[in-house]
Design a protein that fits this description.
Mean pLDDT: 96
Helix content: 25-40%
Radius of gyration: 21 Å
Strand content: 15-25%
Low-confidence stretches: none
Number of strands: 17
Largest sheet: 9 strands, mixed
Length: 458
């Protein structure tokens, strides 16, 4: 059967390929779920089976944004503990989070995914680590929500086995046993992970963090991931308090601890990595360990400024993350392009920290690297998957910015005229095509209220 083609032309294009190729006015041809051609000027004449032509005048086409760290369940606890640092914030919210159930997880995932997709995310991930006893099939609910939204998705199946009685932060009834966490994680990989090219659902092994997970869960989790051929994810070096915690409990800093448990490598990525010294960054660069940079959440929780320019110089793969919406209430990744640039310019490198094009690379190709899918997504190149976003830049908000990449990164949030995932339309004229946004809003509001009532009742 002949391929169905979509033709997008007359738009500026930032390919984010290895040479940062850009076209002031160019075209992209999509054949089924793959990019067939990209280049300057109009699309080739005589194309067969063209089912749609899009005039991209006044638009910028980029790869779809790739989110590398999130906690979907937090959508229904937004706006709480707004003046806390990380540890105090966790202590304040864990008792509420520990009461989530399957309907809550599904609604929260729908809200998180809908917001990201409408803002240009074509590949999402969720680090879900709260599995209260009797809560239902939380992983299935989250994966189902991603499938309904139409985005490419990685579930980082998290876990916690260090409760408060063992010196951890979460309440004891919110953690799993070592054996239970490993068994449930392996079952999730077996049921849902798709290793094929173009996979829509993948699974990673993701114990939560050093202060909520035993050393044995870290070690055996790494062994499980490598036996199954999936990636590894966790939180790392987020705060000064975490470094102190690791030194007191393990006699070493976070990076040395991760290395001792098998958690450095090209199949690993960690969220935050704010407090890393030169030796830590060199270790990540040497081993190819990736980083999910979450600038808004780091600022919201007063965690600090990650040394992203130094990481990039050392060859560390770096992508962007929304993080949970209890620490980044907007829940949108495209705002992280701007915040990554601005916040890093407050650091030691000042105005030379990051450029707008580097910020766009973090949010696209960098994220694809971190998720181990740079051969499939993250740039606009022939043969790659058709995960593309057409940003509208001809409105008042961007009318006097000549450079479209500068307009996208530093200007106001740009509307999404078209977003394709695997060649399928998931956003059209700034609205989702596969999800009823109003219904999602009602559902998330109702589940947030129900959770608040349950938490208040103790």
């Amino acid at each position: 059967m002949a391929a169905s083609r979509i033709v997008i032309e007359n738009c500026a294009i930032a390919t984010v390929d290895a040479n940062d190729t850009e076209y002031a006015s160019g075209h992209v041809v999509v054949a089924d779920n793959l990019i067939e051609s990209v280049g300057a000027g109009r699309a080739p004449a005589g194309l067969e089976n063209v089912v749609r032509r899009v005039d991209g005048t006044g638009h910028l086409l980029t790869p779809g944004l790739v989110n590398t760290h999130h906690h979907f369940y937090q959508w229904i606890t937004r706006g709480l503990a707004t003046d806390h640092n990380l540890f105090d914030w966790l202590v304040a919210l864990y008792p509420t989070w520990a009461r989530i159930d399957e309907p809550m997880a599904r609604a929260a995932a729908q809200g998180s995914l809908a917001t990201m997709a409408r803002g240009g995310v074509t590949t999402a991930m969720d680090h879900h680590y709260v599995y209260p006893r009797g809560a239902g099939d939380l992983s299935g609910a989250i994966i189902g929500a991603a499938s309904e939204t139409g985005v490419r998705f990685t579930l980082a199946r998290g876990s916690m086995d260090r409760g408060r009685s063992d010196g951890g932060l979460p309440p004891d009834f919110a953690v799993e046993s070592l054996e239970g966490a490993l068994a449930a994680t392996e079952a999730t990989v077996d049921k849902y992970h798709d290793a094929s090219f173009g996979a829509m659902t993948q699974i990673a092994v993701a114990p939560c963090s050093p202060f909520s997970v035993s050393t044995e869960l870290m070690r055996q989790g790494a062994e499980l991931a490598r036996r199954k051929g999936v990636r590894l994810h966790t939180h790392g070096s987020e705060t000064v308090e975490e470094e102190q915690f690791c030194k007191e409990l393990f006699g070493m800093g976070p990076t040395d601890y991760f290395e001792s448990t098998g958690w450095l490598g090209s199949d690993v990525w960690m969220a935050h990595c704010v407090h890393m010294n030169d030796s830590d960054i060199a270790a990540f660069g040497r081993t190819g360990t990736g980083v999910a940079h979450c600038p808004s959440s780091n600022a919201r929780l007063a965690a600090g400024i990650a040394r992203v320019p130094d990481m990039l110089k050392a060859g560390v793969p770096v992508g962007l993350g929304v993080d949970g919406t209890a620490s980044n209430e907007s829940g949108e990744l495209h705002t992280e392009l701007r915040n990554a640039l601005l916040i890093n310019r407050l650091g030691a490198h000042r105005e030379s920290a990051l450029t707008a094009r580097q910020a766009l690379r973090l949010g696209t190709h960098g994220g694809a690297q971190v998720l181990g899918r740079a051969d499939q997504i993250g740039s606009v190149e022939t043969g790659k998957l058709a995960d593309l976003v057409l940003w509208k830049l001809d409105t008042l908000a961007h009318s006097s910015i000549a450079d479209p990449v500068i307009a996208l990164v530093l200007g106001a949030a740009a509307p999404v005229t078209l977003s394709l995932v695997n060649g399928r339309t998931v956003v059209e004229d700034n609205h989702l095509t596969m999800v009823d946004e109003d219904a999602v809003a009602r559902s998330t509001r109702a589940e947030a209220r129900r959770l608040a009532r349950i938490a208040a009742a103790g």
